[in-house]
Amino acid sequence: MPSLDSVLACLDLNIDRSVARLMELLRIPSISTDPAYAGHCRSAAEWLAKDLSAIGFEAAVRPTPGHPMVVAHDGPEGAPHVLFYGHYDVQPVVPLELWEDDPFDPKLKEMPDGTKRLTGRGTADDKGQLMTFIEAARAYKAETGGLPCRVTVLLEGEEESGSPSLNPFLDANKGELKADIALVCDTNMWDGETPAISTGLRGLVGEEVTIHAANQDLHSGYFGGAAANPIRVLSKILAALHDDNGRVTLPGFYDGVQELPEEVKKIWDGLGFDPAAFLGSVGLSVPAGEKDRAVLEQLWSRPTAEINGIFGGYTGEGFKTVIPAEAFAKVSFRLVAGQDPDKIRAAFRAFVEERLPADCTASFSPHGGSPAIQLPFDSPYLDTARAALSTEWEKPAVMIAMGGSIPVVGEFKSRLGMESLLIGFGLGDDRIHSPNEKYELKSFHKGQRSWARVLDAIGRMR
Ligand code: BES
Ligand code: MN
After folding, report:
1. What terms describe the molecular function in GO for this protein (predicted)?
2. 203-257+303-370 is classed in which CATH architecture?
């Protein structure tokens, strides 16, 4: 395959330039959840549309009521058509003091073992990942004059904040976006040598709950003893969400949840997962989930309830003796196949309401809801991509699941009738959503080479 070989050689030759381009994108602080960064989100979208245009895509920044999308098209009509999806928005960077460097001043660092990594917010989630695809397309065009498939690119700017504009955008642009298969680059490898295709993702329901008590903050000596304390009320309710065996206590929570099919269990058992090493890598040792479940099951095929944030009262330096008027928590549920996001949200609200003592009220605001995803194991695209990945990496590609959520995958299926292939090059220690996020240079480089191979192979599928 002389043309593919020259594309791969081109990627090798231009790795420094591709790193420099990624760093430009990483310097734009496109935090989607904070309205103060809206201008930067727009700049990131513009940067990407410009880069895609420079490669020869017909690319545009497309407005939404929130942060814009980038949509681009290229490649021969009539060839197999892929929709590539990635997101250019990033998570917030607090707590800033835990970062070794400015999160938006990316660095290429050499480690003591000689490996190199890119550091900074968005390196792995998802700017570094999405640029692996764009670099592959760039090299393919440069070397062969065109793309092997019809390629539509869709880059979202609200993935990390619940994708409020996504569904209307998909509905309004169905004809333009529907392809034979969606390629999503926002997941992990199995390990640093073993590429992976993810066939399952958990769903997500987010809720912010506020408990209101007195109509003002109170002196905790003058009123203490007589006044309801909303933090105490909130803590008690949240503590009741799990029983002593780690099961979630919301009525109906496990309705519809299935046991793992035997064939999937076999695939997972074959992966050789090491729970002690997994927990050890983040300073933990004892699995804290449902007691009767293996760790991989806890992560990939069982639903959870988590408290992601809790605040209220005085949290600054020193001490203030106060009984606050309100207390807040951000709670989320990871869902598996069979669970309905709307029912889980309603069950949580009822659970809180039922436990409110006199003089306390609760208010809620929803933060996204998406069902779990199960992709087919018997797709020809899966076989093709698996073979292509296995040629590039040291070890053959494996099929895994991910405990995280990528709501767009479900929407592609339900709104556009399109399946997805989830191929990503992140690693478990990339610290996504945390301080000191990183992306291995190997992931970035071999990720580019992987996409060149996958595109080439899909192009031959007609
Ligand atoms: N890239 C992640 C999903 C992911 C997490 C893939 C871990 C592989 C391993 C994605 O950007 C993400 O974080 N999604 C959010 C979705 C939410 C904000 C709607 C998540 O899973 O929390
Ligand atoms: Mn992501």
Report:
1. metal ion binding; peptidase activity
2. 2-Layer Sandwich (3.30)
